[in-house]
Design brief:
65% helix; mainly alpha
Length: 104
């Protein structure tokens, strides 16, 4: 498993690396499911006012993503070194998958 990532100071430089770390379609699909659950949980929490559900948001997102990395990509998620860029990358890749710019 690759444990060393290059140093990034801009998201524009990070995103191509992020996409390269998600070359496996099963991993991308698991990310898509996890991000969909995060969006649904956030929407439901806002609508219902059941704020305790916010505790499930990181579990829903990271559980699917990390299964994709550890079992399909066989790499270490960049989240450990770039938490903000990785979170942003999840949502940008999600958008790009919906728009057809990144394959499912």
């Amino acid at each position: 498993m690759n444990t060393t990532h290059p140093r990034f100071t801009r998201f524009a430089d990070f995103y191509p690396f992020y996409l390269a770390e998600h070359g496996n379609s099963s991993c991308r699909r698991l990310h898509f499911v996890g991000t969909s659950l995060v969006i649904a949980l956030l929407a439901y929490t806002l609508a219902s006012g059941q704020w305790w559900l916010l505790l499930a948001v990181p579990i829903a997102g990271y559980a699917f993503a990390w299964v994709g990395h550890f079992f399909f990509e066989k790499n270490r998620p960049a989240t450990f070194e770039y938490p903000f860029y990785s979170l942003l990358g999840d949502f940008v890749m999600y958008r790009d998958m919906l728009l057809g710019h990144v394959d499912f």
